[in-house]
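step=encode ok
step=design start
structure_in=
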């Protein structure tokens, strides 16, 4: 397994556990965010979008 792919999985597991989000849902959220990002966006902007998606899920979960 490539080093980047392994690191991606490790981060996915870590964030999933931290925010108590199922891993499959987290992967779906990340894939969705990746599909909706624009090519000219910075990495920081993409990270913010991912973070916003997680927060949105948290907000919906607490309702």
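sequence_out=
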């Amino acid at each position: 397994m490539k080093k980047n792919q392994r690191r991606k999985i490790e981060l996915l597991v870590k964030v999933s556990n931290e925010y108590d989000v199922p891993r499959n849902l987290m992967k779906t959220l990340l894939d969705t965010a990746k599909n909706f990002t624009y090519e000219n966006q910075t990495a920081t902007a993409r990270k913010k979008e991912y973070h916003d998606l997680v927060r949105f899920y948290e907000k919906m979960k607490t309702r």
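step=design ok
step=annotate ok -> The CA atoms of residues 13 and 23 lie 7 Å apart.
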